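User: My collaborator sent over this chain with a note saying "see what the structure looks like." That's all I know about it. Can you take a look?
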Amino acid sequence: MTIMTETHFTTTLKGIDLHYEVYHHRANQQKPTFVLIHGFLSSTFSYRRLIPLLAKEYRVVAVDLPPFGKSGKSNNFIYSNKNLASLIIGLLDLLGIKDIILVGHSMGGQIALNMIKQKPEYVRNVILLCSSGYLKKSKRSLVLSSYLPFFASYLKYYLAKQGVLHNLRNVVFDHTMIDEEMMLGYEQPFYNNQIFNALAKMIRHREGDLSSKDLQEIDTKSLLIWGTEDKVVPLHIGERLHEDLRNSKLITYEKTGHLLPEEKPFHIKEQILEFI
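Assistant: Without extra context I'll predict from the sequence alone. Here is the result:
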């Protein structure tokens, strides 16, 4: 089964460079397209184990959300969930794709839900992997602090002090899976210092997650997959989302953390294909 892979595409939309990757199986062009959206402080790299599994049968589009990965880190872009969702919809319009299955991990889950709110007719199904939920807007004190001249430098110092190894240990249950390739893949995007100014702006622009009322208005068929050992977005958030999303199903995996696309790619693929 031959897969045609096209990578490192960049286009400019809404005044920012958007990096995306396309994995296209020639024999299945009439099927819906999988659109993969990563989480906070991540990139398309987080889907490296899941993409080949889905691309055996479907076209897959993976996007680097600005300011992460290889996408732009402009100081003029609005880094709100609503605007990021609109940006990806703009990409889909550019590519002529209007029949999709959305996959969103962590913060990417909220972007996916915002996309459904804006263009429900584009989305056949949504898969939420340890999705963010019910987070409020950034506190006023933090927003005001983000305007200080040294704030971006503080963010850089704080993230460097924690280190990529510490962060990975916090998001995966089995620490033995953390190797040099994984550490480099999650660390490399932060070699660009411009990202820290953009992160400061993201703190200001973040409008908070969709409310229960917004979620209850979504009728898209939804699959929620969670790790019971998730320390970042605990299972009770998934259970609450399952209650609010009226057309949803919740699946959990024991001894699994937050980074589901890395930890359970084969299981996720099987659950997704069965669900759709």
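A starting point for your reply to your collaborator: Residues 151-171 form the longest helix (21 residues).
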